[in-house]
UniProtKB/TrEMBL annotation:
It holds the Pfam family APH. It comes from Piloderma croceum (strain F 1598). InterPro entries: AGP_Transferase, Aminoglycoside_PTrfase, Kinase-like_dom_sf. Signal peptide: none annotated. Residues 48-302 form the Aminoglycoside phosphotransferase domain. This is Aminoglycoside phosphotransferase domain-containing protein.
Length: 408
């Protein structure tokens, strides 16, 4: 809810609704831009609101306000990530000012350039296949360029405030939804002891095994700290502890990519949401910028080498094949072809192919505790324990194929 004086971040629990002062935000923006400014609601995301800044002169600008339930370092990491990417010619909005501390507005905010053009999502259905190919080709080029920005630790990126270092950036604690205070309008952890206790699992991480297991270790801590579960918590804990052990061998710290250019720098940018709505294009289908890069993290290369989800086929609610399957297949092939023909594309392709089942493992690690208690979870892990003993660093094929290999 918004009015001239305040904006309300509403949640399903009325006790977890947060108000921010639009009057104070307008004053702060006016001070940063050194001229009187007014605000007009632009859009709203899961964890932020955006307002167009109306002023008499100067480039088009917006101010984005973070949900007050977010950790303070979420915006700090987002600012650092955008500045770092901009410094490497990755098209993102220019940041003019930000405030991640306690302020009169009641929330963290960021004043930045309004990227020209329209979201690709708003135009997609009316674009020709040729125009879509043009956009997909550019997305592949930009994501490959970002993939080549590599680090020796995993976590999230921050600006360094130390004066004795030549590097203005460092990798610090990871910013993911696992550690948010509120998700989908409900408190993730109502117990303050649990919410504070899981922070120690945020890293940064110097190896893949620790990165892989961090959210699971946080979930184990939370499960042990709470009671009155509606499922078999002991079975869930047993399987979750086995999963932590699996993280140390599948793939663990084994080298997944055969010929890494920089084995001592095995991490890169993992974008949380490269969707069409976050890709801005102009009238000639040139990409003018990527927006909403919140929760972009630093992760293993095999986790970063992915095809955008909007290029993947999907089933509708009735189980029928997506009608745009053929077009997506064409565009997906364009995406992969662009990378394969790049001078630096082979490492990405190896990470993409070799990391397939490891990415499925990452997805599975985010399952609820009740799901971990199922027998199927134990069987799934046993397949991979057996495989990892014989094939360290190699993804497991289809389990049925693997069992056939063992029997024969």
């Amino acid at each position: 809810m918004d009015n001239d004086q305040q904006s309300l971040f509403e949640n399903d629990d009325p006790g977890l609704s947060y108000a921010i002062s639009l009057t104070q935000l307008s004053r702060a923006v006016s001070k940063h831009l050194r001229q009187p400014c007014q605000l007009s609601k632009l859009r709203e995301g899961s964890f932020h609101k955006a307002y167009r800044i109306l002023r008499s002169h100067g480039p088009l600008t917006v101010v984005r306000v973070a949900h007050p339930c977010m950790a303070r370092d979420k915006m700090e990491s987002e600012v650092a990530t955008m500045k770092y990417l901009a410094g490497h010619n990755f098209p993102v909005p220019k940041i003019y000012a930000w405030d991640s501390g306690l302020n009169a507005t009641g929330a963290e905010y960021m004043v930045m350039e309004k990227v020209p053009g329209h979201s690709a999502d708003s135009l997609w259905d009316n674009l020709s296949l040729s125009d879509k190919k043009k956009i997909v080709t550019q997305v592949a080029q930009h994501l490959l360029a970002a993939f080549q920005l590599q680090f020796d630790q995993a976590g999230s990126l921050y600006l360094s405030h130390a004066t004795h270092t030549s590097n203005p950036y460092y990798v610090g604690p990871i910013v993911t939804s696992t550690f948010f205070q509120v998700e989908d309008g409900l408190p993730v952890y109502s117990d303050r002891h649990v919410a504070d206790g899981i922070q120690k699992f945020r890293g940064p991480f110097s190896n893949t095994a620790d990165w892989l297991s961090h959210s699971l270790r946080a979930e184990i801590f939370a499960l042990k700290s709470t009671h009155d579960h509606e499922f078999d918590a002991n079975a869930a804990l047993a399987n979750m502890n086995d999963a932590v052990r699996l993280c140390s061998v599948y793939p663990g710290d084994n080298q997944v990519i055969p010929l890494m250019k920089s084995p001592h720098m095995p991490f890169s940018f993992r974008f949380d949401d490269i969707s069409l709505k976050n890709i801005m294009i102009d009238g000639t289908c040139q990409i003018t910028g990527f927006i909403d890069l919140e929760c972009t993290t630093i992760a293993p290369l095999w986790e970063c080498a992915t095809v955008p989800i909007w290029l993947l086929p999907e089933d509708d609610a009735d189980g029928f094949t997506d009608r745009s399957f053929a077009e997506k297949e064409v565009l997906r092939n364009i995406f992969l072809s662009e990378i394969s023909h790049s001078h630096d594309g082979q490492e990405w392709l190896d990470a993409y192919e070799m990391g397939r089942d490891f990415r499925k493992f990452v997805y599975r690690l985010d399952c609820s505790a009740s799901t971990w208690g199922l027998k199927s979870s134990a069987l799934w892990m046993q397949d991979r324990f057996d495989w990892a003993r014989l094939h360290p660093g190699v993804r497991c094929p289809n389990p049925n194929e693997y069992r056939f290999e063992i029997i024969s």
